[in-house]
From TrEMBL:
N-acetyltransferase domain: residues covered: 18-173, 192-351
UniProt record, GO biological process: UDP-N-acetylglucosamine biosynthetic process
Species name: Rhodotorula toruloides (strain NP11) (Yeast)
Keywords: Transferase
Pfam families: Acetyltransf_10 (PF13673)
UniProt xrefs under PROSITE patterns: GNAT
InterPro entries: Acyl_CoA_acyltransferase, GNAT_dom, GNPNAT1-like
GO molecular function term, any single one: N-acetyltransferase activity
CDD domains: NAT_SF
Name of the protein: Acetyltransferase GNAT family
Amino acid sequence: MASTYNAPLVPSAAPAYSTVLCSTPEQMQRALAIRHKVFCEEQGYDPAIEVDELDALCDHLLLTKKNEDGTEEDVGTLRWYPPKGKVGRVAVHKQFRGTGAGSTLCLALEEHVRERRGKAADVMRGKTSFDLVAHSQKIAEVFYHRLGWETVGEDFLEEGQPHCKVVKTIQLKPEPAIAVLNGSKPPTRSYSVRWCETQSDIDRCIQIRIAVFVDEQGFSMEDELDEKDPASDHFLMTTVGADGKEEDAGTIRWWPKPGLAAGKIGRVCVLPKYRGGGTGKLLMTSIEEHVRNRRGKAGEASKGKESVTAVVHSQMHAEGFYAKAGYVREGDKFMEDGAFHCKLVKQIQLVPETA
Ligand SMILES: CC(C)(COP(=O)(O)OP(=O)(O)OC[C@H]1O[C@@H](n2cnc3c(N)ncnc32)[C@H](O)[C@@H]1OP(=O)(O)O)[C@@H](O)C(=O)NCCC(=O)NCCS
């Protein structure tokens, strides 16, 4: 599949072009129609693979031209895949090539990313700059260079054509303040997290979950205690009170996805009085350590694998918390257990397996 800009090398000054982020099904259809014309009808790619599963995860830009009689024509499109920063499916209708359409699209993408719009907002969180990446056909390399992109690494073959990787670093606009649910406060005591190896520890985790998700947040008991519990690793976070006694503070669980190099992090919660100051973060780093070191059910499930994908279905208010822990949003929000959630993922590299 051609994932590169495909226009003549010398763009001229752009006419009355404007670019929008596709935000309605109608705009998306127009963008897909341009791709179909260019990639399928003109270049002979199979329509069955031209539109793929990444489309739902990308930001799509649509370039249009305003004519003097007031009518509007669709000119070109590109898509951008946030987790990899990768630009692809750049397509400009034949009659507009060589008119600056491709540069206008690429510059619009730069602005889109710089301004942290669309899905870009999620992957830019916490960052001050970001690398845009494209696999350019060798004949289009000069086009990218003119726009300030640089070639990195060796040339390679893609779809039977010589390609190179081109990159441009975008300095991002300062980040707007993100909503912090519980405000950070400095840790006033120390916490520890243990993998539950007894039923009584697991019962303590479940009590914390009921206090947070059922009593505090109003989820149903049926949704809370599900069939994944027996197949999961559970973790209990504790602290020591002023009287020297152990107090339960939070919990988290890992459910290995059967047959996949992936697992789901869930039921992440800290009791209200212990929130802030990094307690939630400690739960996240502890579970990642457990998985990385192939312990428990996570270890059983990751036999023969070098890495696993940690998946979170986050309530919308907690998205920023996971983003801070390095999780990257995939796709649109969706309903789960009667509340909006979004999916975030992080790759966990495992320690080498011992013989
Ligand atoms: C979500 C939860 C586990 C986070 O734990 P916490 O102790 O409050 O958070 P931490 O102190 O560990 O925060 C770690 C970082 O994430 C940030 N953060 C925490 N909650 C956040 C939120 N809702 N939105 C954005 N950022 C958040 C913190 O500011 C902190 O940033 P820093 O490292 O730059 O200081 C906790 O608030 C909780 O139990 N909430 C109720 C249960 C819940 O909704 N769980 C999520 C289910 S999907």
